[in-house]
User: Fold this.
Amino acid sequence: MIPLQAQAGWLQHDFGHLSVFKKSKWNHIGHKFVIGHLKGASANWWNHRHFQHHAKPNIFSKDPDVNMVHIFVLGDTQPVEYGKKKLKYLPYNHQHQYFFLIGPPLLIPLYFTFQIMKTMIARKDWVDLAWSLSYYARFFMTFVPFFGFFGSLAVLNAVRFFESHWFVWVTQMNHIPMEIDHEKYRDWLGSQLAATCNIEQSFFNDWFSGHLNFQIEHHLFPTMPRHNYHKIAPLVRSLCKKYNVNYEEKSLYNAMRDIVQSLRKSGELWLDAYLHK
Assistant:
């Protein structure tokens, strides 16, 4: 069930970017079905959040994916700003450690679930709410006869707990270790490459990440079907070399390790600024 939910997550991502069918209408219908009925979330919530990320990746106040609501400090600038202002909502010099406790385990089962429901109700998005509720109705009708209500609730949260780990590591390994800062008003190519990196291609990496190991190509051509990323990657690499733009590619292990090292570095910057400036 966990791999199915993870792969449904990558599939809804394809539909959300209108990269499956030629007609936008069919992509939108597919998106609502997969993210709503198969995952219990909201297409409109996802679109509003994800399109901001693509427009301004890793830009504070413009990319919601780097809005950590004071739980983490990211990059080189934010930690120093927090330190100088003596802001200490959490011991950020330990964020690379508590990341394992409150990052991957809680993002989907707690934060996203609450935010999605709150957003749909606040915006009176009854269509997406109906799709979402159809997921819960189907889930409990299937599992309550076997596990009872509370047992089914435990199964639901267990699946989301493990899926959340999968989702966080895949989505953050391409962005968190990269440049995270305020708006610098770069050109399109430079802004996307500063905030994204690729993971080496392999059959497993393609499947595990839903082809988001080609994050650079995805950000440059977000409506392109994912199975074409490997075809244009050499061309993008050549273009970046021609114009001296950094094109970064890592192994899967190094990319995941860099998340933790990036959090550690940012935490040390915060502590230094907090104590000495």
User: Anything to note?
Assistant: The two ends are 50 Å apart (CA to CA). Strands lie at 198-199, 249-250. Residues 58 and 180 are 5 Å apart (CA to CA). The chain is about 65% helix and 0% strand.
